[in-house]
Specification:
The protein has 230 residues and is an alpha/beta fold. The chain is built from nine helices and eight strands. The protein has one domain: P-loop containing nucleotide triphosphate hydrolases (Rossmann fold, 3-Layer(aba) Sandwich). An eight-stranded mixed beta sheet has the order 3-4-2-5-1-6-7-8, sandwiched between helices. InterPro entries: P-loop_NTPase.
């Protein structure tokens, strides 16, 4: 399964994508940073981005790479393909990756793509069409939802994931933003700080709060035939 995570503004896409990968049932999913603005996780944890997205993209163009040669294990327990922090380097690597068959880099295990903020003309846009489901992350406040309602999400497989309290019914929310609501996530500062490398990792950190809710969502996606790899 290939799951894309995006937002229309700074909506916590990276934190949610990391929590989803960490909480995936049976095994942690692979997380690929594919944000054209540049990767965050390497900088948060003081890790190099090579090997990473650039080396994976180049290897995909020349054959079928060993994905393990391009991943980094993050301290909170997930394997990640890290992107360079700079926009030019990240954008170039994403463009190369989008031109290759996803079977070359998403065939061995569930894969979560962190596409960051979706902007017009983004080199990550083609990756949306490759995904089995597109999870659009937004705050539950009125302003965040208004911005989402004005955005154009180019995928009929888009589903809304809200973060924090929502002041609308599910029916009103779907009418407002035009994207079906699939999950409501709690605002979880503790987990966010672990993912950002700002807090020590507890033994059961991924069993409560955001990771626990993300695990329920992941299990739901696995059960739904509509989101099985085509």
């Amino acid at each position: 399964m290939l799951v894309a995570v995006t937002s229309v503004k700074s909506g916590g896409a990276t934190t949610f994508a990391a929590a989803l990968a960490a909480a995936w049932p049976d095994e942690s999913a692979l997380l690929i940073e594919a944000d054209p603005a540049g990767g965050d996780l390497g900088g948060w944890h003081g890790l190099p981005d090579n090997p990473g997205l650039a080396s994976l993209a180049n290897a995909c163009r020349s054959g079928h790479p060993d994905i393990g040669e391009h991943t980094t294990r993050l301290p909170f327990g997930i394997d990640t393909v890290l992107a360079a922090a700079g926009r030019p380097q990240a954008s170039a690597a994403i463009g190369l990756l989008a031109d290759t068959e996803p079977a070359r880099w998403a065939k061995e295990r569930p894969t979560v793509l962190d596409l960051g903020r979706l902007e017009p003309g983004s080199p990550a846009a083609p990756l949306l069409e490759l995904a089995d489901v597109v999870l659009v992350v937004a705050g539950g406040d009125a302003l965040s939802l208004l911005r989402l309602s004005l955005a154009e999400i180019p995928s009929d497989r888009a589903r809304l994931v809200t973060i924090g309290r929502v002041g609308y019914s599910n029916e009103d929310l779907a009418h407002l933003v035009g994207i079906p609501l699939i999950a409501q996530m709690p605002w979880d500062r503790h987990s966010a700080e672990i993912i950002a490398g700002k807090r020590r990792i507890g033994r059961a950190w991924n069993r409560l709060g955001l990771p626990a809710t993300a695990r329920a969502l992941a299990a739901s996606l696995v059960r739904q035939g509509d989101f099985q790899v085509r």
